[in-house]
Amino acid sequence: MTEIQLGYGKRSLGFSFDDSRYEVLSGNLNDNQPLSDVEIGEALSASIQSPPLEDLFSAGDSVKSAMT
């Protein structure tokens, strides 16, 4: 059995599992800096085979949850 610590609020909880049945996947643990505002803006402007956001939404539009 393997035990890992899972973040839960401001604490962590221990979780034991059979490592012959499960594999722990983790994120990319590199020292990259967070994206700058310019980089975020460039990413939002980059085409992903979709119209630009400004073509999809207008000032004053609102978003409603589909889970009501």
Comma- or semicolon-separated keywords:
single chain; about 70 residues; alpha+beta; two-stranded antiparallel sheet; 2 strands; about 20% helix; elongated
Explain what this protein looks like in three dimensions:
There is one protein chain. The protein has a two-stranded antiparallel ribbon. It is elongated. The model has no long low-confidence stretch (mean pLDDT 83). A hairpin with a 2-residue loop joins strand 1 (2-8) and strand 2. Helices cover 19% and strands 21% of the residues. The chain is built from 2 helices and 2 strands, in the order E-E-H-H. By secondary structure, it is of the alpha+beta class. It has helices at 37-45, 53-56; strands at residues 2-8, 11-17. 0% of the residues are buried.
Taking the sheet with the most strands, its summary is:
2 strands, antiparallel
Helical element count? 2
Radius of gyration: 20 Å
Low-confidence stretches: none
Distance between the termini: 41 Å
Could you give the order of the helices and strands?
Answer: EEHH
**How many strand segments?**
2
Range of strand content? 15-25%
The class by helix and strand makeup works out as: alpha+beta
Mean pLDDT: 83
Shape descriptor: elongated
Helix content range: 10-25%
Strand order of the largest sheet: 1-2
